[in-house]
Structures are given as structure tokens and as C-alpha cells.
Amino acid sequence: MKKILYMMRHGQTLFNQQHKIQGWCDSPLTDLGIKQAQIAGEYFKKNNIMFDHAYSSTSERACDTLEIVTEHKMSYTRLKGLKEWNFGAYEGKDECLNPKLPYGDFFYPFGGEKENDFRERVNQTVIDFMNQPDHQMVLAVSHGAACAQFYRAWEQYAKVKREGRLYNCCILKYEYEDGIFTLVKSIIQILRNSDQMKKPYKLYGLRSFIFCKMLKQDLIGFLKMAVTKFMDLDPFKISMYGKRWLSFFYFT
Predict the structure, then answer these.
(1) pTM > 0.85: yes or no
(2) How far apart are CA 42 and CA 47, in angstroms?
(3) Is there a contact between 23 and 95 (Cβ–Cβ < 8 Å)?
(4) 138 with 117, same domain?
(5) What are the tens digits of pLDDT across the range 154-176?
(6) Distance between CA 2 and CA 6 in Å, rounded?
(7) Domain range spanning residue 233?
(8) For the chain, what is the domain count?
């Protein structure tokens, strides 16, 4: 029998707004994030979509989103398997330190997860609860990279292709039958702050942008020196030069 899964990302958070790397670390929903969740809830209500079960990542931003979407009227289960990618020592740092996509196993040496391990964690978690009886219409609130990795696990069966980013509170509708998930609908944009998306350094201004560039250059130099001298690698130790820039841009 065909089952339906609605998988969605949480609403905008403070760290999303500040462009900080946010995996297992957490931050509260912004006013925009709350509004996004309310609009997602209105979408489900308008289309007469009633869930028999709901699941959420254990991260507060995902739980809060689910509770707003369901108007605090539905019980749900929190699952660690739906948590975001563990970015290790990069958690809470500026997004300018992210490597280029695809990330692969970049974060693994720094205490994070390998990409395939992360994908399998999310995928198996979803399979486990969708295989339970009486799960015909299910809501799962997770995270951007988690939703993207789940999509990639089943991309070959997708009837519609995902294009672009998975914005906050985007919704992906899957059909589940004979052990296969098929993406049949993608509601990418619930409420997008277009000005913010076009100007990623708007909140911090030019000095934050310059700081990120200088910090990244300084880190590269430090790591080269560390390898040469067989030192213990710590990606967030920076030279005195970098510390002076840090003091100038954030404490003056």
C-alpha cells in the first residue's frame, strides 16, 4: 500500500540569519522562521492534509517548527537520526569557512560525520518509521542537509527533480511503496527573505566579509606550517596575526 511522507526543513534560525555553520549545535527560530512555519501549517490545512504520525529531529529548531506547523495540537516523536550533519569543530563558525560543495568527508577529521554515514543515518531512520503500521500520512521535520541527503539516496526514482537550495520550511512530498521513496512534489519556497538571500553579509556588513577572507587565508597558512612541523592539527588555532584581525573586527 502506498504511503505518503512530507519531509520539511525547519524555519529560519538565528544562526541561519547570522550565516553560522549549524549542524548539531542549535539556535532559536527568528520571527521570520516562526512565520515560515505558520505558512507551512496553513499550506497543509488549506490542502486538507492530515497527518497520522509526526517525527522531528531532536534539535529544538526542528521541534519548534513542527509544533507551530501542527498548532501544538499533535503529539510527535523526536529522533536523533533526523538531526543535521555533524560538522565537528566547525559548529558555530562563520559559513565562509565551509569548503566548496560537495563536502564529502571534509568534516570527518575535525570530529564531524562522513557524508555517506550521515546519509545512511537519515535514510535508515526514515525507513524504520515509515515501515511501521498505520503510518499512511507522515510529517518529518528535519534540516537542510538532511533533506538533501535523503533526496540523493532516492534521486534515481524521483518524478520531479529538486533544483536549487532547500530553503527554510521547504516541503518535499514522497510516495513510499515497495520499499522505494519517490519524490512527487517539491514546495521549495514557503517564505523567502529575498533581500537577505541576495546579500549574504548584510547583517554583519563589510568588515565581517573582510574578516572571513583574512581568517581563511590565515588558517591555510597555519595548517601548512602545522603539517611541516608535525604539530597537532587544530583548524581553529590561528596565528597572532589572525588574532589581531579578530580583535579589530569583533571587539572594536
Answers:
(1) no
(2) 8
(3) no
(4) yes
(5) 999 999 998 788 999 999 999 99
(6) 13
(7) 204-250
(8) 2
